[in-house]
């Protein structure tokens, strides 16, 4: 590959220089304020620095709705260019060293070469993702009426094979988990025998499970509707939990925030899965109506905080089997994907740090003494604390940008990529379509 433009460390340092004086002022002020409650700001900086969230390869391309996709200049055209963009995000925000691949969208010709390309940029590979919700050119059997639960054995076998291939590729890339989301279900009442479809799912998943290396986990991702608009096979966390239990100790339940009906209490689902030792992790995004794939924290930041409140509570109590994998899963239709992903990563760190600010003793006392007002006030106290200086200091100390979005814009990265990446005719869209 020809030399390609990258944002230099010196450029980031130069940009940071401009923001340093006011950041120091805000940081000192916040440190004093927190000190009054016996909170050491340095502990929170350390927490911010320890937080990690994976970037989905498909998130760095422009997404689309079922009406249209508006491609932007300088979008990545293949997995190497996607990794370049992921490396840029990592450089600026420092909390995103892992990338999650979707197969066959990102199927590498040479997994060893891809792994090395990632390693040179400080990146590694998070969970693999299979795709049996679309047909690929040249594919023998269609997934129009399902994949792992299709009535025909041959279709199910093809879908199982594909998942096993994802695991094989993942092994070569150093991944340790495989996520299965299927679109299987029915669009009409009566289309599918509801119980039989779930039996077939389990039968197929057992074969995939058997192909997992000992140190791998498999993540079951539920979703209440779409593309099946009447009945979806893995429609909720209860079904997911049942399947994970049936499969065994390497199977866990993954929570994609957008895969729930509006107003569902997702933090409760999270708490339940933690309690049952089956929480796989997350696909973070936000939504107003359904699987909107909006940027994390853009619509319901308080919900995000309450989810992290459960996660931090479990972290501090060292709950067994608690090892959640964090990933973003968003579709960027009207924003620059790199900017959206950076802002979303920061929103997660914000929620994580704020959740660490919750006075757990105070909360527990309020709960035990049946004082709901005090309990809510304790949560609100943490949620309304502006921890932005902590996030910025954490990023800057790790070599990242104090202001990632403006540093990115000032670098001219996207314009440079528009020159380096002219549209290749006939190439598929790189985001979700
Ligand atoms: C699905 C689901 C999966 C993701 C695809 C692209 O709705 O969220 O996690 O792999 O979209
Ligand atoms: Mn998802
Ligand atoms: Mn989704």
Please write out the topology:
Elements: H1 9-35, H2 41-50, E1 55-56, H3 79-93, E2 98-103, H4 111-120, E3 124-130, H5 153-173, E4 177-180, E5 185-186, H6 194-210, E6 217-221, E7 231-232, H7 237-247, E8 251-256, H8 266-275, E9 279-284, H9 301-316, E10 325-328, H10 337-357, H11 360-368, H12 372-383, H13 388-397, H14 404-411, H15 413-420
Parallel strand pairs: 1-2, 2-3, 3-4, 4-6, 6-8, 8-9, 9-10
Antiparallel strand pairs: 5-7
This protein binds beta-L-rhamnopyranose and manganese (II) ion (MN) (2 copies).
One manganese (II) ion binds next to loops.
What does this structure look like?
The chain is α/β, with parallel strands linked by helices. 47% of the residues lie in helices and 10% in strands. The strands form two sheets. The protein has an eight-stranded parallel sheet. β1 (55-56), α3 and β2 (98-103) form a beta-alpha-beta unit. The radius of gyration is 22 Å and the shape is globular. Bound molecules: beta-L-rhamnopyranose and manganese (II) ion (2 copies).
């Amino acid at each position: 590959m020809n030399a390609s433009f990258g944002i230099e460390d010196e450029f980031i340092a130069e940009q940071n220089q401009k923001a340093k004086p006011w950041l120091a002022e805000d940081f000192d002020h916040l440190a004093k304020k927190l000190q009054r409650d016996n909170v050491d700001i340095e502990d929170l900086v350390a927490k911010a620095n320890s937080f990690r969230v994976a970037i989905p390869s498909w998130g760095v391309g422009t997404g689309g709705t079922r009406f249209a996709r508006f491609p932007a200049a300088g979008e990545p055209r293949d997995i190497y260019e996607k990794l370049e963009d992921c490396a840029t995000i990592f450089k600026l925000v420092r909390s995103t060293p892992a990338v999650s691949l979707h197969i066959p969208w990102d199927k590498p010709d040479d997994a060893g070469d891809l792994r090395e390309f990632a390693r040179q940029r400080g990146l590694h590979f998070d969970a693999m993702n299979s795709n049996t919700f679309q047909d690929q050119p040249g594919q023998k059997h269609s997934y129009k009426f399902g994949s792992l639960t299709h009535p025909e054995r041959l279709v199910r076998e093809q879908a199982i094979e594909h998942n096993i291939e994802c695991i094989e590729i993942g092994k070569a890339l150093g991944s340790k988990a495989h996520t299965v989301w299927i679109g299987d279900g029915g669009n009409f009442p009566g289309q599918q025998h509801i119980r039989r479809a779930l039996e077939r799912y389990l039968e197929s998943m057992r074969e995939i499970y058997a192909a997992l290396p000992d140190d791998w986990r498999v993540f079951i991702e539920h979703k209440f509707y779409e593309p099946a608009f009447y009945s979806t096979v893995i429609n909720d966390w209860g079904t997911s939990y049942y399947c994970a239990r049936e499969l065994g100790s390497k199977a866990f339940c993954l929570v994609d925030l957008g895969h729930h009906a509006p107003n569902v209490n997702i933090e409760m689902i999270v708490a339940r899965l933690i309690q049952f030792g089956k929480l796989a992790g997350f696909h973070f995004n936000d939504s107003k109506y359904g699987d909107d794939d909006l940027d994390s924290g853009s619509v319901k930041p308080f919900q995000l905080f309450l989810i992290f409140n459960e996660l931090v509570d479990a972290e501090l109590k060292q709950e067994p089997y608690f090892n959640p994998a964090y990933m973003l899963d968003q579709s960027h239709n009207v924003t620059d994907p790199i900017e959206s992903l950076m802002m979303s990563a920061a929103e997660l760190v914000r929620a994580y740090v704020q959740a660490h600010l919750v006075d757990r003793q105070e909360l527990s006392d309020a709960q035990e003494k049946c004082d709901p007002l005090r309990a809510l006030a304790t949560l609100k106290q943490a949620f309304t604390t502006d921890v932005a200086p902590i996030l910025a200091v954490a990023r800057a100390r790790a070599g990242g940008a104090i202001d990632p979005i403006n540093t990115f814009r000032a670098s001219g990265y996207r314009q440079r990529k528009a020159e380096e990446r002219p549209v290749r005719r006939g190439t598929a869209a790189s985001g979700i379509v």
